[in-house]
Design a protein that fits this description.
By secondary structure, the protein is mainly α. 66% of the residues lie in helices and 0% in strands. It is built from nine helices and no strands.
């Protein structure tokens, strides 16, 4: 259990470090970000633009020894790519941490933010169309594809919201471990997406009654 917790923290830490390097305090590494956006997987040719940073920050045990991407490489790369999609054409830093460290800004888990967007009739149908199949599958490629579309919807709707992409990398790592862990992650995502919306609606209703 201790090793698992340490691995969790390492994945979050490495993902955050890579994202901060790409943002570079506002001096974005636009060439790398553009390449990553067009490279769906870590072994795609255009993903090679990110490899130097990826190899620099990931520890040897996180890297492949046979050319087959590891769960850590897939998780970190995917989260960084989703950040790149979100950051495009946005000046403010779109990454934030649920539990900020040092100079980090505060962010929210992706599905909690999507729950907030779901409160709008304009986005609910589009979001549900992507989220429901995502929560029903353990196929990693399908999940990554759905996440990419969801981040695109977020970017088009509320681009300045800050997401904890490091936490998302951690989720994606556990999602790949086994069926039980994938189910655990799907439940967490579903709880964040649906329960938060219910709480928001309840709060608004209560506030509305108080104001009458």
């Amino acid at each position: 259990m201790t090793n698992s917790i340490q691995e969790e923290h390492k994945i979050q830490e490495k993902t955050a470090a890579i994202i901060k390097q790409l943002y570079s305090k506002g001096d974005l590494k636009k060439g790398i970000l553009a390449s990553v956006r067009h490279a769906p997987t870590v072994d795609s040719p255009q993903a090679q633009a990110l490899w130097p940073l990826l190899m620099k920050y990931l520890t040897p045990n996180m890297l492949s020894s046979d050319g087959q991407p590891t769960a850590q490489e897939i998780a970190v790369y995917t989260a960084v790519r989703l950040y790149a999609v979100h950051q495009q054409s946005t000046k403010s830093f779109v990454f934030g941490a649920v539990e900020p460290q040092n100079d980090e800004q505060t962010g929210e888990p992706l599905f909690r933010v999507l729950a907030q967007l779901r409160g709008s009739e304009d986005t609910r149908v589009a979001l549900d169309r992507r989220v429901q199949p995502l929560l029903a599958t353990t196929n990693l490629a399908s999940v990554i594809n759905a996440l990419t579309h969801l981040v695109s919807i977020l970017k088009a709707t509320k681009p300045s919201l800050k997401i904890d992409y490091a936490q998302l990398a951690q989720d994606l790592y556990w999602f790949q471990q086994n069926y039980k862990q994938a189910n655990r992650i799907r439940l967490q995502w579903g709880e964040a997406y649906y329960r938060s919306t219910k709480s928001t609606k309840t709060t608004k209703t209560t506030e509305g009654k108080k104001n009458k």
